[in-house]
């Protein structure tokens, strides 16, 4: 007896109420049928972190953003199976979509777990987290909103730390120039578990948007 195949990406795009391929801001209150706080994960991979957060916080609305068809199909299938009403999947490149689908000061939290470090020097320009993107993140966070980043790449971690601390509206929750040693308040992503099991060091960065943060830097 053959198992039912995964739905195709086209079927997801056409049929799933959880999937959004949009160039302008949706009415998030209508999409979720409530006005609960809105949190975003950029690059959700296999969806482990995103889904566990949605289960853990049923009174929070989560948006996962990615552009890998296979991962999106799998996550949509899991959302359907678990009947999670507080997740929406937004398709596309974060740098291009975020400016248009979220208002300024609309997001309570942004999670970026293990962005591709593009370790070869000629590929540095492909890295997601650069000053213009950090400014974008700061603009979309509400006052008191937070951005949480995790990476296993020390060079990329140091670069991200520099860029985040240079943003005048963001403040390092741990202290200037400091990484969080471990993180126990969030579920672990698939990559995070793999890196920890391999004995690799993880660099965690937790920043909060604060009015007047630029006066503290």
Helices and strands in order, then pairings?
Blueprint: H1 9-15, E1 19-20, H2 28-32, E2 38-42, H3 48-56, E3 61-66, H4 69-82, E4 87-91, H5 94-101, E5 107-113, H6 131-140, E6 141-151, H7 154-166, E7 170-172, H8 190-197, E8 203-209, H9 213-216
Parallel strand pairs: 1-4, 2-3, 2-5, 3-4, 5-6
Antiparallel strand pairs: 6-8, 7-8
Q: What would you note in describing this structure?
A:
- This protein is α/β, with parallel strands linked by helices.
- The protein has a single domain, classed as 3-Layer(aba) Sandwich (Rossmann fold), CATH 3.40.50.
- About 35% of the residues lie in helices and about 20% in strands.
- The chain has an eight-stranded mixed sheet, with helices on both faces.
- The longest helix is centred in the middle third of the chain and has 14 residues, at about 70-80.
- The mean pLDDT is about 90.
Features of the shown structure:
217 residues; alpha/beta; Rossmann fold; 8-stranded mixed beta sheet; 21% strand; globular
Number of strands: 8
CATH class: Alpha Beta
Class based on secondary structure composition and strand pairing: alpha/beta
Count of discrete structural domains: 1
Our estimate of the beta-strand percent is: 15-25%
Task: Return the CATH architecture.
Answer: 3-Layer(aba) Sandwich
Q: What's the alpha carbon Rg, rounded to whole Å?
A: 17 Å
Instruction: Using the coordinates shown, work out and report the CATH topology.
Output: Rossmann fold
Output the helix-strand order: HEHEHEHEHEHEHEHEH
What overall geometry do the principal axes of the alpha carbons give?
Answer: globular
């Amino acid at each position: 007896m053959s198992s039912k195949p995964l739905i195709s990406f086209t079927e997801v795009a056409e049929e799933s109420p959880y999937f959004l391929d949009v160039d302008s801001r949706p009415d998030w209150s209508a999409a979720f049928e409530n006005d609960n706080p809105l949190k975003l994960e950029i690059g959700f991979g296999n969806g482990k972190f995103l889904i566990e957060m949605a289960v853990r916080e049923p009174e929070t609305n989560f948006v996962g953003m990615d552009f890998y068809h296979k991962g999106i199909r799998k996550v949509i299938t899991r959302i359907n199976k678990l009947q999670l009403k507080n997740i929406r999947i937004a398709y596309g490149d974060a740098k291009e979509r975020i400016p248009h689908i979220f208002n300024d000061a609309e997001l309570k939290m942004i999670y970026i777990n293990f962005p591709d470090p593009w370790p070869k020097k000629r590929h540095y320009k492909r890295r997601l987290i650069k000053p213009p993107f950090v400014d974008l993140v700061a603009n979309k966070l509400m006052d008191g909103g937070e951005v949480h980043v995790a990476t296993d790449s020390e060079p990329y971690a140091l670069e991200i730390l520099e860029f985040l601390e240079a943003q005048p509206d963001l403040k390092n929750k741990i202290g200037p120039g400091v990484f969080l040693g471990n993180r126990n308040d969030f579920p672990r992503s698939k990559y995070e578990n793999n890196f920890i099991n391999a004995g690799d060091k993880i660099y965690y960065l937790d920043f909060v948007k604060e009015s007047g943060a630029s006066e503290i830097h």
